[in-house]
Amino acid sequence: MTITTPNTPLVCPVTGATADAPPMRPGGPAPLVTAAARTAPFTERYLLDPAVNADPYRYLNSLRDHDPVYWSAMHRAWLITGHGQLMHCLRDPAVSAERVGPLMDAVPEGAREDAERAFAILSRWMVFNDAPQHRRLRQVFQEQFAARTIGRYRAFVERATRAMLARRAVPGSIGDLVADIARPLPALVFARWLGVPQAHGPSFWYWNARVGDLVLGAAQEEREYRTSLQSLVNLDDYLADLVRQRRADPKDDLISNVLAGGRIGTSVSEEEFVGMLTQMAFAGGETTSNLIVNCLLALLQHPEQLAAVREDPKLVPMAVEEAMRFDGPSKMSIRTAGEDLDLDGRTVRSGDRMFLVTAAANRDPDRFPDPDVFDVRRGSASHLGFGFGAHFCIGAALARLVAGAVVDVLVREYPGLELVEQAHTWQLSLLNRALTALPVRY
Ligand code: HEM
What we know:
- By secondary structure, the protein is of the alpha+beta class.
- It has helices at 35-39, 50-54, 56-66, 83-91, 100-105, 115-122, 133-145, 147-150, 154-168, 177-182, 184-194, 201-216, 222-248, 254-260, 270-301, 303-311, 316-327, 358-361, 396-413, and strands spanning 69-72, 77-80, 95-96, 174-176, 333-337, 341-343, 346-348, 353-356, 418-419, 439-441.
- The chain has a single domain, classed as CATH 1.10.630.10.
- It has 19 helices and 10 strands.
- The chain has a 5-stranded mixed β-sheet with strand order 1-2-8-5-3, with helices on both faces.
- Helix 9 packs across helix 19, helix 12 (201-216) crosses helix 13 and helix 15 packs parallel to helix 19 (396-413).
- The longest helix is centred in the middle third of the chain and has 32 residues, at 270-301.
- 44% of the residues are buried.
- Bound molecules: protoporphyrin IX containing FE.
- Protoporphyrin IX containing FE is lined by residues 97, 126-127, 138, 279-280, 283-284, 287-288, 291, 328-330, 333, 385-387, 391, 393-395, 398-399.
- The site of protoporphyrin IX containing FE has 24 residues, from helix 15 and helix 19.
């Protein structure tokens, strides 16, 4: 999802972050910095500064070294960049995931009347709920996302990957890996896994993209908000209908399998189930595309690592995991302090926003030796690219399966695969790490 056009006002409705004059910290002046932090020269930069967006790691490293728990007046948020501090936040029940309120506050006056139903749907997304609600909602999906259940789709994913590559990536030809494979393949797999008939794909993915605009901050104008809010309502109506159909005539897909679990209508209402389904494709589609692209970019930019994976394909899953750490699709998660809390000797006040910058924590030298080195043998299991704790990505096994299948075939069966351009454009986004295109020779 993008906040791409240069004229777009740099405001993110998820976070409210702006590039305008730094406002005062809610609850008082900025806390005093530590003695260690005072010694290093550090100049704060806006995270949506195009140069920072293009290469976030240099700046994030300096921010973390300066102060891993930093109050940013510029972003009106705490920027948490240390691995230990970030894990602490994700464990602490005082740190709340509820953020539908701020999203709603950002809707322009003229689009408010459309917003009520859309925000009721968003409030059912498990990612915006805290315990005990969150646990109740997540439980109905748990079994269907377990690695052993997802493993049943391996043959289908591998077949779909080979078929798509055969059609769209002829060896020797030049193409765009994003448009040719990385975007359409996860879309195809997720639609099948969720139970969306192929014929409905275009509207289904259009609504998902517009919902992404709302949640990730690309919708800025009133007209864009209206489109996004209406798309969420359309998606909810569509999925409610699909749930009714699958109840009457079950198939082998996520919706039917969760219904068969017997919890819908008891521990979770059908309305809540449908609301959660509206999150699934949005949460998994683009992120998985970006994992495929970022992993292949890292491999192609590190020929010795690519050669190691070619020699020993058992390294493919490790390469995917290392790409999650080194340059993963998600740069941060957003939270709010539900009550006052102490973090590294600082008082984070109730209501303060917190940017948990996982992209920085994944390069923390206290956790990962030589963190700026891409090393497929690292075994980077403790990266935070899928989050951590109660909200750990429920779709991680599916993302790993799909990304692993694509990387495996491209690495093993395309010995000539190479970059045809050295400079790349990253979508301007606070949350996502996404290339606009990746031109390659197949
Ligand atoms: C490489 C691909 C993916 C990445 C990088 C990713 C990243 C994440 C992250 C960082 C979180 C935690 C958010 C937070 O704590 O605020 C999360 C949660 C979530 N993800 Fe993923 N995700 C990916 C794929 C998927 C897929 C394929 C699905 C489903 C089809 C999915 C569904 C979800 C859901 C439902 C949550 C919320 C879990 C909860 O709140 O308990 N994700 N994801």
